[in-house]
Amino acid sequence: MQNRRYHVHIICVAHEQPLVLDGLAVFFQSRAFLTYDVSPRLPQASLYGRQSIDACDYAIVVIGDSYGTTQNLGVSQMHLSYLSARAKLKPMFVLVRSQNRTADIGRQLHDFTRLVEQQVEDIYYYDDNTNIDELLKIAYDNAVAKLNVIASWTKKDRSVKDAITQIQVTQRNSASKSSTFTNASRKSDEDDKLISPPVEIIDATDNITQSIDLSEKFDMEYSAQAYEGGNLTDITMSTSLTWEQILHALARMPGAFSNHGLQGCLNRLITIKADKDIKKMMPNVHAVSRCQIAQNDLIKLQSLLVAANWIQLTASGARTSQELWKLTFYAKKIFKDSSAQ
To answer: What does the DSSP 8-state code read for residue 141?
Structure first.
């Protein structure tokens, strides 16, 4: 591993758990090139995180005492980076700080930790007394044993002419495939020229990770406003949709859709049911509006769609400040088979 290194991206709350982050830097000094999630106060934080995850070979999630500052969708940069890594099926392991039973860690951090524990196999717990270096040795050895590809990054001395030739070859390969893009990284040492090969992203996630039965239902909470006799009432209720209903609604979406588009799609489905349910409960209601799925349920549903290989990030979404999703070929096939029946 001295001449071949992995690119590892650290998913974390920026500048939180400094001893662990420093421990990672020291441990991977001769093993990998590291990138980290940065402060969400920077305008390009989300874009940088997605590009780093897109380029990395492996991801490490560090869950400490903080969930992080929430973004527009009500989730933190750490959460967004985790969803992005899951969407791209990046191999990963997770370091979780053990919490005292009396510690108030907050609902969002608690829910996020439980979500990760349910979805990721390799999880390692630590506290103030843990030898981080020893823990990382165990985690890293297990990770490398499961990673069945060679390291993407090569460190070796070569002439400027060789480096230019390799860049030209890489650019030609990239230009020949519209669904291929080149990841490049630069190390502070000017003597090292690091070049990553093109990566095919269109079919990269078309592997089933968690199957979904179309007849099963997804339970969710939603908020709405009911108008009755000139009065406005805020209502919170529960409902459920079958996965077949969700899939058929997604199939009617544009070729690429944003997180906001996904939310709007689900809100429209909920509105149809909410109008009937609320009027049953409140017979004098003459109008129902502003039906919105609960944020936690939206995140959970999106994670399940990713895990089931129904949606994936698009190439254009990885390069812009907005995440853009699309149905996978696998989901389209399920939709086609379901429609035929």
So the answer is: H
